[in-house]
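Structure tokens please, single chain.
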Amino acid sequence: MSAATRPTKPTKPTLPARADAALAPVRDRLLRDARAEAEALLAAADADAAAALRDAEARAAEILAEARRQGAADAESVRAAARVRARRTARARELAARRECWEELGRQVVRGVGELRGTDAYPRLRERLTAYVRQALGPDAVVTEAPGGGVTGEAPGRRIDCSLAALAHRALERTGVEAERLWAP
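Here you go.
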């Protein structure tokens, strides 16, 4: 490219010196106004930022308070469930202990009643049990000695267990709740 075809840079128009001096107050005023507007915009931006920060902090405090309330409610729920489990466990243990006491009482009663076989009164007791079975089932009932003492009787379609163990268990069942008072607190 030749110098004649090369584009030239535009030149800045030159103002007369008096014009520059005359425009100085306008330029100064425009600069002051621009600075004042910029400061006002910055102050408004700072105020907006501060308000946004306050709002965010307030919302964070609300969220934290709600989380604490929910955490406390969840903790209470967990504590309540633990108390229920503990009560159920304690009740199950109490019932198991009562059942064990009941079973032990049954074993002792059966053992004690079984000891009647070695007494002088047993033959008379056996005769009374046999008479009871024959009266209940009829004279044709088959009466046999029960293992452990006492008798059983059978007639067509009917059976009576008057063994000493069965009599002891029935007597315990009749006592029911009264017997439980032996080991109740």
